[in-house]
Amino acid sequence: MQLVVGRIGRPHGVRGDVTVEVRTDDPGLRFAVGNTLVTDPPERGPLVIEASRWHKDVLLLSLAGVTDRDRAEELRGTMLVIDSSQVEPSDDPDEFHDHQLIGLTVETVGGETVGEVGDVLHHGQDLLVVRRGGGREEALIPFVKALVPVVDLEGGRLVVDPPEGLL
Predict the structure, then answer these.
(1) Based on the number of CB atoms within 10 Å of its own CB, is 55 exposed (0-12), middle (13-18) or buried (19 or more)?
(2) Dist CA 135 CA 96 (whole Å)
(3) Residue 46 has pLDDT above 70, yes or no
(4) Tell me: the pLDDT tens digits for 28-45?
């Protein structure tokens, strides 16, 4: 499974540098000079990092073969991905990667099947996107211990204790 670690944004300057919306906890590792980045869509890459620096809390990359603003603009919106096997497991038992949660069956504390985790959103607070009714409906559940007391990766499920009206 591929995991998004960044998204190329607007060009920066006239020499082909690009801004990157970072979506990884370890940008120093993922965006190190010399690394080759796989892209989505695949025909836009692979891209080799020639320089990496921070400018006012924005990551800027110089990429091999991208030498002007027009070429940088062509890459806007490109997702930078890695294979999930490249992600080290966390030592924290309450920390999960999105790819571990997507696809888990969602059950209530009473044992009723609610649906399946279809995505994880990160908007200030992590939200589980739960697909219900064969994917026709979606429910957003804040991913906090009080509402999601059990995450059973080996069992392929997580248990939710939603307040009245959430589902």
Answers:
(1) exposed
(2) 23
(3) yes
(4) 888 999 999 999 999 998
